[in-house]
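User: Sequence in, structure out. Go.
Assistant: Echoing your sequence, followed by the structure tokens.
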Amino acid sequence: MHEQAAPTLNYSFAKENGLVLLELGERAHVGAREDAPPEALIEARRALGVPLVIRPLTQTEFDKRLSETYTAAGLSSVDIADDLEREDDLFSLIQDMPKTADLLDTDNDAPIIRLINGLIAEALKLKASDIHVEPFEAKLSVRLRVDGVLQEIVALPARLAPLLVSRIKVMARLDIAEKRVPQDGRISLSVAGKAVDVRVSTLPSRHGERVVLRLLDKDQGRFNIDDLGMSAELQERFRAALAEPNGIILVTGPTGSGKTTTLYAGISLLNEGSRNILTVEDPVEYALDGVGQTQVNAKVGMTFAAGLRAILRQDPDVVMVGEIRDVETAQIAVQASLTGHLVLSTVHTNDAVAAITRLRDMGVEPFLLASTVKAILAQRLVRRLCTSCRVPAEPHAGERRVLGLEPDAPAAIFRAEGCAACNQTGYQGRIGLYEMVAVDDELRRMIHDDASEQELSEVAFRNAETLSQAGARLALTGVTSVEEVVRVCRPAGGSDGGV
């Protein structure tokens, strides 16, 4: 038997014609699907330059061998680091794409592989968190999520959609033949010496499969409370909550508001070697040294509740649950805190006080919440104004209302302009807005007595900043714009202080 050959048949040709090279020596052993056309065999004989030995394959066998043979080619065939060197690389790659739709006119898949490399390189350059590949009738749209906002970077010909999607699926070890159901996979890359994980998700749509690639920088070590953008006073209160020997600390906010990063920063502070810290997450996004991390897997019954129940038998000191989604998880978290564990978790609510109502609505008794919840942190992420191009301005009446200013009070704000440094967006990077409810004796009594959200808010924020007030402070100091604060915070007149 000869060793497995490097794939010397064009991937697109192999897939379309049902041929896959199995072994290469004095003769080429070629697997042929039942519908492989004779002319394709002639072309394969010409390309390989040796006589062929044909092995019939079923559709399932062919798909498996095709995926195995070409996965290894992956992104390694072109070094992404090379693509990072050239500023205009992505756009020159697109111009270099063959204009013909005839796949046999190209000698290999280099143009498609280089295009994928270029997209990932561009995303890393712009510090994007996600790449969206979206096929439509007339075009293939590629958008990047930069600082939480999607922007289209290129529109490609619609004919490239199946080629691009198939190649991404091969790299992520997904089933290339299955286009009717969503799939999830992973690609591990090394880019300029940095380890990058790419989470791949596909979804069938009317004009083909949509693909979203989530970029996770494995070497990202920014899980430090000092880097979160909290005010000195709030950071001190958060550190005090983490120093509690037991109880529940909740972080709330919508998807993409940085809740996991805040929890990781809290765990990193506690992870000094004397505690057993265990987590159950969906999925595990970053590896934390010294922390036992478990991933949810609903297919085999590994839910948050099952995972939490299991890790409580592993003698933990600190437990992190990715999210409290149901009453079972909530009740186990409460019991864990009552038996001497510090539990960190997230809940999807708009503000801090609403987390109490959410848990109460799930069926957790108010007297249990009163005795277990130690602190609730609500957060949002706003984009920072680009310091190279922001322009000072006088706030108009509507902005004054948002900022809580008197009509004639002197004030100055900055607006986004756009320059080369910020890719014409007017913003660079993000910073957190926070509000924190530290449960003291008065709040504990009110939670026990089933007080309303409004009553709890009035007491909790008597001497503390709400999300909107934190946003107003950052807008008045030129860190962000009023538009950003309005985009991520509740409008004026809400129950969070009416800023």
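User: And one key feature?
Assistant: Residues 1-6, 71-88, 97-108, 491-499 have pLDDT under 50 and may be disordered.
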